[in-house]
């Protein structure tokens, strides 16, 4: 069982589209998954679920519990201002510290409108997850110019699809 984290709370994000495509790929490979979309996390969580309020927001605690109970993740990570979205870092900061990710495993996918494909975003996130004790799969597809390479909820670029399928196989065996 793999948890796919859609790493932005922007409504109608491409991140969500790629998360659903990834879930389909895992399903074809016989692997169950759920999508944890940051767009559904309580919107006031940076006030009601962090620091002195850590663990006190019942709705946010459901998401904390999902992360605590799972040991394998796929993060779909959009590029915002040359890195990953701040809301994803705030979400990580709201999880049970320090062992929510210790000795766990994840795969990262970067996506962007521009030409970098979230290369720096997944690199920055790799540093954080390694600090937290989580093993990050080496293959990290970077899907640049995402609007031009997706249409009607599908990937139109054969290489992108192949990269995601390769990564999905690897994270299952990781
Ligand atoms: C706050 C913000 C910052 C962004 N910064 C970048 C950027 O630095 N580089 C880039 O190529 N695209 C940037 N984008 C565009 C996203 O990469 C684009 O929206 C893409 O579809 C992935 O994000 P999404 O999942 O929100 O759709 C930015 C978008 C937002 C909302």
The secondary-structure element order is: EHEHHEHEHEEEEH
In whole angstroms, how far apart are the ends?
A: 13 Å
Give unreliable regions as ranges: none
Identify the CATH architecture: 3-Layer(aba) Sandwich
In what range is the share of β-strand residues?
A: 15-25%
Which kinds of small molecule does this entry bind, naming each only once?
A: flavin mononucleotide
Please tally the helical runs, counting DSSP H or I stretches of 4 or more residues.
6
Judged by helices, strands and strand pairing, the structural class is alpha/beta
Number of domains: 1
Could you walk me through the main structural features you see in this protein, from its secondary elements to its overall organization?
The chain has one domain (2-173): Rossmann fold (3-Layer(aba) Sandwich). The longest helix is centred in the last third of the chain and has 16 residues, at 158-173. It is an alpha/beta fold. The protein contains six helices and eight strands; from the N terminus they run E-H-E-H-H-E-H-E-H-E-E-E-E-H. The strands form two sheets. Strands 1, 2, 3, 4, 5 and 6 form a six-stranded parallel beta sheet that branches. The protein has a two-stranded antiparallel sheet with strand order 7-8. The protein has helices at 14-28, 45-48, 58-69, 86-93, 119-131, 158-173, and strands spanning 2-6, 33-37, 72-78, 105-111, 135-136, 142-143, 150-151, 154-155.
């Amino acid at each position: 069982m793999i948890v796919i984290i859609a790493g932005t709370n922007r409504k109608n994000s491409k991140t969500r589209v790629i998360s659903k495509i990834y879930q389909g790929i895992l399903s074809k490979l016989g692997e169950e998954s759920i999508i944890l979309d940051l767009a559904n996390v309580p919107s006031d969580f940076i006030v009601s679920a962090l620091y002195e309020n850590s663990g006190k927001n019942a709705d946010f605690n459901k998401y904390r519990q999902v992360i605590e109970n799972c040991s394998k993740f796929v993060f779909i990570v959009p590029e915002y201002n040359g890195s990953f979205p701040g809301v994803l870092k705030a979400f990580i900061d709201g999880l049970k510290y320090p062992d929510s990710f210790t000795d766990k495993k994840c795969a990262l996918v970067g996506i962007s409108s521009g030409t970098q494909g979230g290369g720096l975003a997944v690199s920055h996130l790799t540093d954080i997850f390694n600090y937290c004790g989580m093993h990050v799969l080496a293959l990290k597809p970077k899907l640049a110019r995402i609007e031009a390479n997706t249409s009607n909820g599908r990937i139109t670029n054969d290489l992108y699809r192949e990269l995601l399928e390769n990564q999905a196989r690897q994270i299952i065996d990781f």
